[in-house]
Design a protein that fits this description.
The structure is a single chain. This protein has 223 residues and is an alpha/beta fold. The protein has one domain (2-214): Ribokinase (UDP-N-acetylmuramoyl-L-alanine:D-glutamate ligase, 3-Layer(aba) Sandwich), CATH 3.40.1190. The N and C termini lie far apart (40 Å). The longest helix is centred in the middle third of the chain and has 14 residues, at 138-151. The strands form 2 sheets. Strands 1, 4, 5, 6, 9, 10 and 11 form a 7-stranded parallel beta sheet that branches. The protein has a 4-stranded mixed beta sheet with strand order 3-2-7-8. Helices cover 32% and strands 22% of the residues. Helix 3 packs parallel to helix 4 (138-151) and helix 5 (186-199) packs antiparallel against helix 6.
Length: 223
Amino acid sequence: MIVVIGSPIGWLHDEAVVPGGTPARAALAAAAAGRQVQLVGRTGDDPTADALLLSLARGGVGHVALLRDPARQTPLIQEPVAEDAAPVLVEDEVAPQAPGPLPLPSFPLPPLDAGDVDLGLRYLTNYAVVVLAEPAGSDVVRVVADAATWNGAQLVVVVDPGTELSDGLPADAIVFEAPGDDPDGDFAALVGRFAAALDDGTDAADAFRASIAAEGWTEAVAD
């Protein structure tokens, strides 16, 4: 089983809420590759979360360790109405009726909480691969690394560009540097397929080659 850690984000697309963000998209890609997947994180207890969980379940992603917090709003991002417009956060649960982008709120997307992650990982058992699919604080990294080591699971970590790696990572941890933007979900799909290949027993080098080939990428060959 693969455990993907990261809170899902809702995307408002053609008046429907679909999963967005690297954690959800990576989990869906791993499930599409035929692996058992559970998502660990936190959402609100609202219509956006209801739609997200239904869509994830339809895609084969479990959410038994995904916490729902009535005091928290599930992030919902509206797709841009023009090619050069940036996505914007929706601050309520109702799809905007007027055309044009909404003002961008000043608050950031809520970070992962170490206690939430620890609780979720303790609830799950018998996982072979753990993917920390969004950049996280050192306390979260430490919890995830300890759980992966305890369970003998392969750890995959996604970090922001230029991030210094935590000293607590296992020696065999595999680190992906996230791109600045992933509008089509190609990077998330690569991470998900890579995790699926690891879970299937493929070694890391072959798993990476298979993952980039599935995305239509090729390796550069030196002369």
